[in-house]
Amino acid sequence: MMLIKCPHCGARAVTEFTYGGAAEIARPADPVGVSDAQWTDYVYMRDNPRGVHDEVWQHSAGCRRWIAVRRNTLTHDVIATADPGKLPHR
Amino acid sequence: MCFTIRKGNVSVAVENQRISALAELAVPAIPAVPGRGIVLWQRHPLAMLNLRGPGDRAFRDGVRQVCGCELPSSPNSSNVCEEGEILTLGPNEWLLVADPDTRWSENMKIACATLTDVSHARVVVHVEGEKAREMLAKGCPVDLHAQRFPGGTCIQTSIAKIGVIIHKLHNENDIAIYAARSYAGSLWHWLTASAAEYGYHVVAR
Amino acid sequence: MILQAYRLPQGGFIDRNKPLRFRFNGRDLQGYAGDSLASALIANGVHLVGRSFKYHRPRGIFSAGSEEPNALVQLEADARTEPNMRATQIELYEGLSATSQNCWPAVGMDIGAVNNTLSRLLPAGFYYKTFMWPPSWWMKYEHYIRKASGLGVSAHDPDPDFYEHRHAHCDVLVAGGGPAGLGAALAAARAGARVILADEGFQPGGSLLHETTAIDGMPATAWTRHILAELASLPEVSVLTRSTVFGYFDHNFLTIAETVSPHAPRAPRQRIWKVRAQRVVLATGATERPLVFADNDRPGIMLASAARTYVNRYGVRPGNRAVVFTNNDSAYLAALDLHRSGVSIAATVDPRPQANGEIATQVRAAGIRMLSGQVVVRARGTRHVNAAEIMRYENGRTAGAVERVDCDLLCISGGWSPAVHLFSQSKGRLRYDETLTSFVPAASAQAEQSAGAARGVYALADCISDGYAAGSQAATACGLSPAPPLAEPVVDRPSPGTILPLWRVDTDHTRRAKSFVDLQNDVTTADLALAAREGYVSVEHLKRYTTLGMGTDQGKTSNINGLAILAEINAAQIPAVGTTTFRPPYTPVTLGALAGAEVGPHFDPVRASAMHGWHQQAGARFINAGLWKRPQFYPHPGESLQQTINREVLAVRRRAGLVDVSTLGKIDIKGRDACVFLERVYTNRWRNLAVGKARYGLMLREDGMVFDDGTTTRIAEEHFLMTTTTANAVRVMSTLEYWLQVHWRDLDVRLTSVTEQWAAMALAGPASRKVLARVASADVGDDALPYLGYREMDVAGFPARVFRISFSGELAYEINVPADYGLAVWEALLEAGQSSGITPYGTEAMAVLRIEKGHIAGMELDGRTTPADLGLEKMIAADKDCIGKRSLALPALAAADRKQFVGLVTTDGRSAIPRGAQLVADSGHPLPNPILGHVTSTCHSPTLERPIALALLSRGRERYGEKLYAMSPLTGANMQVEVAHHVFYDPEGKRLRGC
Amino acid sequence: MKYSIFSLVRNALSHHERWPLAWRSPDPKREYDAVIIGGGGHGLATAYYLAREHGIGNVAVLEKGYLGGGNTGRNTTIVRSNYYLNANAHFYEFSLKLWERLSVDLNFNVMFSQRGVLNLAHSYADLESYSRRGNAMRLNGIDAELLDRDEVERMVPLLDCSAEARYPIMGGLLQPRGGTARHDAVAWGYARGADARGVDIIQQCEVTGLRRNGNRIVGVETSRGYIGAKKVGLAVAGHSGQVAAMAGLRLPIETHVLQALVSEPVKPVLDTVVTSGAVHFYVSQSDKGELVLGGDLDMYNSYGQRSNLPPVEHAVQSLVALFPSFGRLRMLRTWGGVMDMSMDGSPIIGKTPIDNLYINCGWCYGGFKATPAAGWCFAHTIAQDRPHALNEAFTLDRYAQGHTLDERGAGPFAWMH
Ligand SMILES: Cc1cc2nc3c(=O)[nH]c(=O)nc-3n(C[C@H](O)[C@H](O)[C@H](O)COP(=O)(O)OP(=O)(O)OC[C@H]3O[C@@H](n4cnc5c(N)ncnc54)[C@H](O)[C@@H]3O)c2cc1C
Ligand SMILES: NC(=O)c1ccc[n+]([C@@H]2O[C@H](COP(=O)([O-])OP(=O)(O)OC[C@H]3O[C@@H](n4cnc5c(N)ncnc54)[C@H](O)[C@@H]3O)[C@@H](O)[C@H]2O)c1
Ligand SMILES: Cc1cc2nc3c(=O)[nH]c(=O)nc-3n(C[C@H](O)[C@H](O)[C@H](O)COP(=O)(O)O)c2cc1C
Ligand SMILES: [Zn+2]
Question: Is the ipTM of this complex over 0.85?
Fold first, then answer.
């Protein structure tokens, strides 16, 4: 059972968190201006890497903050956590 | 119907008519060996305010002036003062807890602050006794060891799928559990079932 | 009956002053406190314990621990019965009762044993090759196959005991309480660490409990007690016995299954510990491997270390005349101990040309007959071994004549396999060690280290120091200073010689006999050869095809032999063959314990509103709504269900009704950008909403489907109160927080859930204004509080928020009061409404009211409907973006043939429209019958006095007046219906405006 | 050699020493007409039907581990066709019909046991949505029965049907023709059938790259060297994202771990497959006697195939809540599989933007029962370069059109389906 370090509450069991998917998939700034394909890329398509993955989680049983988590999807190592948008560049 | 002096939003007479979610539940069950076992008691009524604000100097000063209480400065911590307690809930979020006759109210004006009255949103049960920590470990996934969880610490987690705030008072063996009001019955069941092994008393404070 | 004929006159870790009576297969027997069921059976000369899985061969006691493949029993009867219990791990207690499994009518006379005779027809995987004809007969064949398989039987009554979980945190978790584990715990504890030591045995000590040598001048058992006493004196150390570390999960999270001491009052039967450890020391010891030869499964054949355990720890004699067959020195200890206990040793048999280790020398000195360069090729006897057949062993082959040596105990040892289960579960990497002929830990994946026999360190003194060093290192890794150095333990135990790899003994004259690799699943060397011959050559295929290692013992004594034999057959290297995957649990764990206390009525917590007690007293029937319990209706004596619903509905339509709506989600929204925020999350406009006004809002998912709806009220310029549906309350809150915290971090908005703060009730019906006016402190007239208006006032003397909104379609008010006042206000409203005929109503009447009114609810919000599908396209503001809006332009979401929201009435005006009916044009169409749409909600409308329904229907709005069929083949109902507008009642909305 | 009771007897006489290989283990050829990546049930069935139905036998199935070692070898083996949406219903019903004769077709007993699949209803809302689903199934020509509480209790006597249960049982939807099959046998049976028709099954051969020429794939790079291919089909389940990325494709797929567990084997106690949507849980008893149960996803992207306690605990809690007498049985083993969770919960079988690259993925929890039909339709799509009528709706470009097939209505969150 993974342990995720909430930047606000400290390290907590994964059961306190709710998964929110890939981090900050950029929402088209002008939805009307993009093609159907571009829009549905944003809604549906994912990188789904086997390895390092940036994602968002909510500390739903704790401080209720959404946080960004950099995690290895193969080994489950949690590499870094931060407020959304604040993960260091890879 | 009687109307009396108003304090904040609510009249004192009305305040006395508050019915706790635990009103019908809080009866003694398995007596413990005197002096041992777990003591459970409910703290009610309470005034509780959700406080949001930037957490900067000016805001902290504001809180101190208006509430008469220092904002706790680190995560998972609380401050107790004459007027009441302030528990940290998250970045820029706190819970003000006081007896209902304090001057704290949703209408307090603190620069940049947002206050929301949540006085009725939670039940608060205190768990006391030597075995309190051991008993809570049956449901609480966070380490409650005295070194990791010293007096004054407050955390949010869940016990038996019920979201809770666990606030350790400065008295080593006194731990307050806050849970959403609607879960009161299930929380109570969990508390009494978990305490049964040690024996427990329910007291009024 | 002679009591305990096989009990040694003295010795053992048992309490001879505490005799215990127990029953096995109906026989009354006696043992002592400290016995396992297995040792007590041996004490009574019981060797035939059960029948094997497939061939029903007689089986006895093979080991003395958790690796036991054979001696599985059905413990107790009725509700407390437990199948497949290992006799070797059952701590004897007064009155214990157990029976043999998988045999009928009795273990001695078992009909199923015919399978052994037919075994030629039952090779590995035979069922894949037959039972295919005729195809329809499989269910018949299967019936008998199912009956034949399985081992013990499940209880049929609810488990009367209870279980619990316990979280724990420590610096160092030590798994295993043998010399290495005790050493590790001691070092870590001395360094000041928080330590948990868990051992599966009912006494800590591991192999020390059967150790006869002295440590530091004390008997091993005394040394153990001494260490345990020191550990007990340290406040931060917990020593758990009867506690198996069964899982090693991500991030040093381990689980322990503890069987709570039978003496603890009011305690659960078992407890699961969930431990988060900074460091872990795995001191789980090693498992002795059997040797594989013909008929090696006979009762009386036993692991050599087990035989030692029985004589030394339990003071019982597993036989009178023993043969010891070993390829390494460790079994000579068994020979010596047996010999010392009065068991005559007929011979020791060793394939090595010369056993010349120091221990072997002691055996020789004791005058025991030692056969070097020889092997046991076959065991004789059926229900009990009565002889061993021995041949010479040269250059990896048997040779010469067969010598028969009589014996009733055949001790075997094929070497040792470190118990790397937990290490492998932690994802650590193994390495094959040629000298030890076993897999050992190579590289850790987590903050863990193995110690002692678990990593192939076998000398007792080394185990202690290895454990101590590991414990000390673990403590330093936690930031503590190292433990004081340990004086090198003084142990009078000669070091062992080298092992000769020997996996199976194969001779021509035993070719056709069965040599078992997996005793529990009856997997023989012939099965392995067959699998290889057919191409199941990967170790994973071998396992699945033959079921090797898939039994309740998970192959603890068979896996390594199996893969080594596979390597031999394929002429491959053992490391290349590799192991199968080690998975939790280490040994099977009770489902009740895993479930813990959250079962039955407490499976999930219950949420109850402030008025719950009142509803109960009023005789309400409750319905689950998420975690909430909501009143479904309040039946009066003698009423039918329909009558209750009609009464409640008509009260609202004609007079006044009161319903508890506390479960609706309520979100307090404050901040400078609150309005901007609402514009982004809702489809419709919010800028122009005046303070003191409420508005209905619609929220989409990003894929364009309707997510949730509800009214939101502007309480102040920068303060809104949003309501959500009960079902989505939690998800809406979380979603709004997501957008704010992840995407729109620049917005100044603060969300607080206030669902719990406010008790909410809807007062609805033509008389509602009159009723409210009686208790309200403010004017509730149409001017002061118009439709969709909002005011704060006192209701019955309590501060309240009053909203003029309506779900029922009648003049109605939603009243929110701080929850602790909920009950008082509820009662006050009922009292105030008494003269107006006020009636409390439940969710069922609420549903009828809304169906009559054509409002959407859960069944229409099925995650596949767009606003336009629901006739709500006008709610999409043209000149702004919002979540999900862009998706509405995708071709499929704008298609003309989508299902649209309509009403239905039956053409006969009488018959009910079945729940969940599907709409078709022609009820007689052959199957598949094209489906045009479906009924979402249906009811009898007491107001209109006829059945009505809501539906989603392809091109529905073009079909008003069209006649279709609502079909419910499940119930046989088939109703002609006419398509209508979805608002059946008061389409102009006059009544809710109160005019 | 044909498998039958006769061949079994005959071989018994020769001590089973004459059984032939079930399949060969050839070295890869330089080029194939079609290369199928992934030696799970889907890949093997695809190769089998390519050879049998379309006469394309010059096919290789490339498997990075051992065949059937992916989700095919780690699923809870439930086979059913109780789907609501038309496209799914027709597809899975076709699959069920193939199941009904699969053992005979393959001459390999896959032990397809039609013991019924029962979905428990715990509320009026459940009953209503099950009615809707059952009625649609019946109109689509699929068997379904609605049971009331008493009928459920009679059928599964050990269920807690009392009113005190946290989620009392109010009835259920039964598909009598549903049931279970032996997972490994399905992989092995298809492998043997495909091999007999000339297909090369190449194990321990990981595809590491897709070689392209313009908008065509010309071959695959593997751990055993380069292999040319006229057509390439992906059937790699949880690894779809990873392998598609080799061709520069992103998919509407996330990889999540789903766990299952078995109890120790006991004599028959449960004759039906029981599932409960309210608690997200399903259980059956295998022919060997173990209770086989599964639960919810781990709920985060993972390729880990690791065991993780919370979903296991929840599944066991659900089991014990529903069957209080199973509390004294014991859990024997847990494991996980990496699942290709699609964004609408429905599968994808079809063409890709790359000319001769075809894809089969997005099976979520449900791809085992799809194995025969998925193989059938995928083979058709590859052979004919256009979908079969049954997989026309399962295109990759349906997302861009908005033609999602959201059986659960859960929206574009892979892990919610
Ligand atoms: C716990 C669990 C329970 C389930 N329960 C059910 C159920 O009850 N009913 C049901 O219908 N479905 C169920 N499923 C789903 C079902 O198992 C799968 O959908 C189905 O087996 C998928 O088959 P497949 O052949 O597509 O995939 P797999 O069997 O996973 O085969 C894919 C193969 O591709 C190989 N591969 C991957 N990458 C490469 C590469 N680069 N090169 C070469 N080979 C590669 C893999 O090794 C693997 O063998 C369950 C799944 C799990 C995990
Ligand atoms: N060749 C040889 O001579 C040889 C081989 C092996 C062992 N030994 C002897 O055995 C001893 C090994 O000492 P050790 O401390 O390494 O092992 P040990 O066998 O003495 O102790 C291991 C303990 O761990 C327990 N255990 C195993 N798995 C567990 C789990 N998952 N959860 C809880 N408990 C678990 C076992 O029940 C046992 O009590 C030494 O005395 C050594 O000389 C000798
Ligand atoms: C339907 C089914 C039944 C199983 N029954 C058993 C069993 O009786 N004993 C066992 O040890 N494993 C059983 N397993 C689990 C396998 O041993 C194995 O864990 C699973 O195939 C996953 O492979 P892995 O653990 O090697 O990763 C079963 C698996 C499935 C899918
Ligand atoms: Zn947090």
Answer: yes
